[in-house]
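Shall we go through a protein fold together, starting from nothing but its sequence? Please make up or recall a protein chain and show it to me in full. Go ahead whenever you are ready, and we will take it from there.
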Amino acid sequence: MARYRNRLPQLDDELFITDAGLETGLVFHEGVDLPRFAAFVLLREAHGTSLLRAYYERFADMADTYRTGLVLEAPTWRANRDWGARLGYGEVALADANRAAVALLAEVRARHESERLIVISGNLGPRGDGYRIDARMSAHAARDYHLPQLAVFASTEADMAAAFTMTYIDEAIGIVDAAASCELPVAVSFTLETDGRLPSGEPLREAVERTDAETGAYPAYYMINCAHPDHIAPALRADGAWRERIRGVRANASRRSHAELGESGRLDDGDPRELGMQYAQLRQRLPRLNVAGGCCGTDARHIEAICRALGAGSPAPAV
């Protein structure tokens, strides 16, 4: 049973961390071959499931250490219809994979929930690439496309869903409408180019305000992911109440553009300490920022630096 679907605890002021760059960590640190950059395929075998469990446990332990809340994002960013078909998953197998992903997070929560508030989030990504817009949908078409995955999440222990790496507004609106039809809380995370705009060219302010306007402000909150803080900063120059709707950031470690990252075969993990300091600077422009994690190139080192920069509790003394 979902614990917090009727009241997400991260809507209060306590700091919640998330995990880091799952896919880049698996590929570059663990040497895992991820077809189509899809982590959910690891759930097909015991060894892959163990890798994922160990990955999430690392951040649950960190939340215990730094006395923060934790949002666990399911490894299902690619687990939608088109990407699933490319990977050989039919409708039933794909639904089973999404359920298995949430069940894995529920196991992790069960081992840590006495210490921390842990929210389980069903993660979904764009129909397209995530770094560029290769096909646009209307909001109505996006609703129909993403509804099956959201309906599966609604039938599990997931407390919410989160749409990550949204590249244009209409797809985000469609996802929100689908989540609302399932009575499932949802967060929307837009990605930005180096100029602080969505890959579609739309300003972040417009993305937040239009999504709210066309969905009755249904999203629980908004986030920004897969962009370096240097690329986020230009988007925050515009003042307004819209900035208070942004509670989460999952930044890239690298200053490279999406195009550069897509062409690179090497990991750019940046400077964890500098990244943490930049989160503290972002908080000055985002007064409600309290959900912090990482995206491409980040790992546990970066999340620990972010915890420290944002004033999380001091580590427990060594024994």
Q: What stands out?
A: The radius of gyration is 18 Å. Residues 135 and 279 are 32 Å apart (CA to CA). Strands lie at 16-17, 69-73, 118-124, 160-166, 186-190, 221-225, 246-251, 291-294.
